[in-house]
Structures are given as C-alpha cells and as structure tokens.
Amino acid sequence: MSSKIQSCYLCSKDIPFLSVYLPDKQAIFVGRSADTKITDTQCSRKQVRLYANYDDHKVFIEQVGVRPCGFNGFKTKRGVKFIGQDGDCLELLYGKHAYKIGFTPPPMKNLGNLETHKRLLFDDTEDNEPLAMKKLKLKDNNGDKPDMKDYSNGKWEHFTNNTLFVYTSEGCEGRSKIAAYDMDKTLIKTKSGLEFPRDTNDWELLNLLVPGNLKKYYDDDYKIVVFSNQASLGTAKTPLKDFKLKIEGLVKRIGIPMQVYLAAGQSIYRKPRTGMWDFLLSQMNDNVTVDKEKSFFVGDAAGRPGVPGRKKDHSLADRLFAINLNLTFFTPEEHYFGHKKVSYNAPSFHPKEAIKNTVLYEPQQSKLTLDKQELIVMVGSPGSGKSHFAKIHLKSYHYVNRDTLGNWQKCIMKTNEALAQGKSVVVDNTNPDKNSRQRYLDIAKKHNVSSRCFVMNINKEHIKHNNIFRVLTDSTHQVISDMIINSYLKNFIPPTEDEGFSEIVKINFVPSFKSEEDKKLYEMYLLG
C-alpha cells in the first residue's frame, strides 16, 4: 500500500517553463502567466482548470481556453472533463507546452495483464518512483538522454517485390521476447495536429514516456520491433527515400536498437495479416525462438468507439493482428499510462466459424438440379462466389454470364436461344433488383419454363474476406473494390416468389482449400 500523498505537481518538459504546484482539493487555473513563464498568446491565461484529489490520486482536468489542450496524445474539448493520474501527459495547447502529472510519493498502478509490463514502468528502487518522472529529470534541452548512443545507423532491406521493407538498426539482435509496436498514434503523432501527416517531417513522439518505456523493455532483454501498415509507401504520395529518413529519425530519437517493418500495398504483410510477424520469426530474429507468452503488441487501431475527447478508432487492425497471433494486446493508453481495458466493437464476421458450415443450400429438401427444363437466376454481390458455385454445381446447365458476353442484352439473347433449344439455363449475373431479374423471368414464361432463384447467402464482411483471401492465394484474381461491393449491397432488393419464381434457394458458403496453409490463412482475420 502506498504512502499518503504529500504533494502534486505538473512537471514541465521544457526547461524554461516552471513546474506548477497543484494543492489538494482546490481548483486552480493554469495557462499563460508569469508563474509558468509561458508567453504564447494562443494559450489563454485560464487555459485549463485543474483539481487535484490526493486521497484518490486523481487530477480532474477541464479545458477552459478557446484552443484545445492535449491529454495523453488526444485533443480535449471545451467543457469536457478528464481524469488524470500520476504519469499522465497534459499539453496546455495540443502538441505544445507539455507537462507530466506527478504525485509525491507516487501511487502504485495496475498496468495490465503482464507482470513484467507492470514492473518495467517503475524503477526497482525503494521509493518506487515512476520511470516517467525519472526520465524527465534526466532529459536535456532536446529531450534526449545526454549519454544516449545514436542507433540510427542501420540496414534497409526490401522483400517480395517491394511489399515489405525492413530497417534493422545498429546493435539490433535476435531475442526470445518481443515488445512490438504500431507506429502512427502509438509511438508518434503529427506535429500539425492533423489526422494524417502533411509530409514525412510532420511527426513527433506520441508522449514523453515513449523513449524511456521502450528502453526499459530493451534493458530487460526484449527485442523492440515496429510493425506498420504503409499502403502508399513507394508512391509519389509517400516517397520511399523521404520515409526512410523519417524511420531513421524516429530510431535516433528513441535511442535504442530496434527493427522496423513496413507493409506496402495489400499484401500478406499488411496487418491484421500476420506476414510481418511470420517473417520476423523465420528470417529476421537470428534463429532465436520467440516466446509468445512473454511478448506483446501495442497499437491504436483497436476498434474502440468514440468518447468525449477522442474519436472512434479508424479500424480494428492492430487488435485483430494480436488476436490472429494470440499475442497479449495493449492500447497506447493501457501500455503507457496503465488505463483500464475498454470495450471495443468486435468484428461481425468470424472466419473460424465460417469454415464450420457444411450445409451448402437451404431448404435442404430442395434439389440443385432438376430432371425437367428450367431457368435458374443467380443473385449475389461481386465476390460472393456465384460463378464458382454455378460452374461447379450446375455444369449440366447452359451457362450465361455478362462478364463473358459483354452486356445484359446479349445475355437475354443467349438465354432465349438456349431455352428455345430445350436446354436448362443458369444466368450467372449479380441481378440485384426486381427489374434485372424480370427480364429473364419474362423469357422463361414465353417458353413455358419454370424459374428458380439461387441467392448467395453471405454478408458484406464475409464477401470482403473472401475477396482478399483470393487475392492472397490466386495471382490471377482481380481484386474487387469495397466501393463496388458496398454499392451493390446498398441497392440490393431480396428476391421473392411473388416475382414469379417457383422457389428461392439460399446458397451458403462452404469453403474448400487446396492446402493446409490456405486453410490457416482463411481462418485469420484478413481485414481490419
């Protein structure tokens, strides 16, 4: 149990600015003043209201000034209160004038599931002073530790047609424990305050804890690794030469040996796919076996809903990456500041459940093919598996497809010709609405032939998963854009028997795989 709190301060990162004493249970205003030595006119004299409660080890924070403050890397909003703890970072202006909350003596924190994670954020000394506070005392005017070696010299390597770039800094070696991090909004943020960087120079550390945190893990025999998705890397938008300088600058700023993996494009290396991790284990860890139970991954793309002061996460890719690997996962707030685990929006599609399906069609008393002449109208989004199903299970039927014929008019003509010849026909088009389906029903009615509708029973997330899986396993497959899939589903009208169909048959997705490797890939979350 920690000793009774005796004092609380805002400890300034910047040497010219003074630390600010926060009395117990008394509200004070902090901003531009002689007390802080801040002269920045964008900072209000009453920029932020602070109320420290020594009993609860909390500091209540409320932006009062016009411009936003920064709290643990996120913008605040006027009138919205935040609760700070020992070691939290407060910027009087977002991205500027940084302070660290420090109680004396510091309270103990619960910093997550890993015992090592809890231990490493504190020095092994009797006063149990948080590492963050000790680092602030050791930093020089540039924010670097005075005796820190420059590890930015290193080696760049390119793999798999420039879809993976790996930077290994001087002194980086294979280790059995991996401390892995995403980069953007986990190690760094934009200087400009924009959502996305203006250029490769628009970055700064996410908070003051980053260098000390990573160094402590490195000193405890963890290999420090960065896994970052950079889809546009190597294009005019993100020149490779400039981005390499950014990575080297980041490694120099942190000041320890580390390895950085950058996934370009839509390859197997892009998170949440596990290609970068697999490549680390198989090629880049000096044949040292990794202990996953003692390793972890930190990332901001965690699927968290929006809350006051923070937008919802842009994706779920980092959390799913850790789930795919069965790695312990932390958000930056949990990792650096010991915040409690928060809820997140879990994916609606679970690939491991999808492969358990063995029922190909419903109702099961139906038949896929009939002894009498008929017309089957397929209905389903691009990428839903219509063509695969028709070619495998309806081989005896005359096949009509717009992709091969060019337009729906030719499809109508070929359907009419085949029905006139007494053949059964399957129309393998998307047929999203009543009008597109009615054209074929009218032809069948003219020939006095019954019609059935086969509907692909697969949701949007499953379609997109299948689409990426095919891209990763079939070099001839052309990726279908999300825009095309979304547009189809937005305008989709489910078919009914009232349109003139004798039966509506739902076709389920029952996967089959060429290899065990393909099966393992399919069972992963492939989209964030």
UniProtKB/TrEMBL annotation:
Xref: SUPFAM superfamilies: HAD-like (SSF56784), P-loop containing nucleoside triphosphate hydrolases (SSF52540), SMAD/FHA domain (SSF49879)
Keywords: DNA damage, DNA repair, Hydrolase, Nucleus
Main location: nucleus
GO molecular function: ATP-dependent polydeoxyribonucleotide 5'-hydroxyl-kinase activity; double-stranded DNA binding; polynucleotide 3'-phosphatase activity
Example of a GO biological process term: DNA repair
Pfam (any one): FHA_2
PNK FHA domain ranges (all copies): 8-77
Entry's Gene Ontology cellular component terms: nucleus
Keyword Transit peptide: no
Ranges annotated as spanning the membrane: none
Keyword Nucleus part of the UniProt annotation: yes
Subcellular location: Nucleus
PANTHER family cross-referenced by the UniProt entry: BIFUNCTIONAL POLYNUCLEOTIDE PHOSPHATASE/KINASE, BIFUNCTIONAL POLYNUCLEOTIDE PHOSPHATASE_KINASE
Name used for this protein in its record: Uncharacterized protein F21D5.5
